[in-house]
Request: fold
Amino acid sequence: MRVLRLLAAVTASPRLLGARPPGPASPAAPVRVSPDSLSGAGGTAPAPDRPGPRARLRAWAELLRVSALFTVPGDALAGAASVGRRPGRGTALAVGASLCLYEAGMALNDWADREEDAVDRPHRPIPSGRVTPGAALAAAATLTAAGLALAARAGRPALAVASGLAATVWAYDLHLKHTKLGPAAMASARALDVVLGAAATAAPSTAPPAPRTAAARPAPSSALPAALALGAHTYAVTAVSRHEARGGSTAAPLAALAGAAALAGSVLRGGPAPGESSRTPAATEGLLLTAFTGAYLRTSAVPLLHAALNPSPPLTQRAVGGGIRAMIPLQAALATRAGAPLNGLAVMGLVPLARALARKVSPT
Reply:
């Protein structure tokens, strides 16, 4: 009998069997990550398992928002068309520099927002522990240096513009994004990217002049109308993006919608390419210009209208994503308006790639 009583006592005692008693220390209790562990001031982000190569690659793809990369090359091609020259070595260097500086801004953005994202977007690569803050900052610095090095190979004017672009990107991510100057800083960065393509393409010995401009070589300032158009669109998209985490703004999507309509109208009414005051656009160019402008308006306006009617975070984020993708047909329209329909067609060829990748990695 004593043996039976002893066995019953052992079975009834969870501590003697090594079981953990239920309560607040249960493994089911949620674990919160302290912002201190993300800032480097103290603590370590939990990393129970080392992710595999595919998981690390996806984390970096999310950090750098690679689906938005396809909106970058069109800046240089629109800038090249604005100065009346065919894309050449300088244009390719400008595209490479722009891609590096764009991705530097993405990495720096998440590094600067790591504590805010720990509350509003805990799934992002840094707060989730998939990318360390130090690695993101190192990537931003390395990509910035690479972008400036590529721009330097395109000539001093290109390097000067790229330096201003890099300074604008870092100033926006580290401070200006949380001020009223945030949208203006982003608009300036996109406009400078167009001017970078123009400066690199117009540099001596980078590309032969097109036959229609053999008598004159416009200065990079000829790209200002296209730069201002893309800058205006970027300003509107950035103003909407300031509400994508919490939603609730109807005014921003409505203002962006009105701006998109006005911008589309100005592109269709735009004058001839630089140095082409007497040139009548060909019928094919006119059709392409109308098609590209219509694609821009459709891509940007529809999600903006939905966000204005229901300013929820998901619809606001969709409007921001549509605004980012709409830059591609806008760049194509601006290149075509400048008399370079082949540049426009090349830019539009990026749309299917951007759309396919956006289904896997969000551009916002």
Notes: The longest helix spans residues 283-309. The two ends are 71 Å apart (CA to CA).
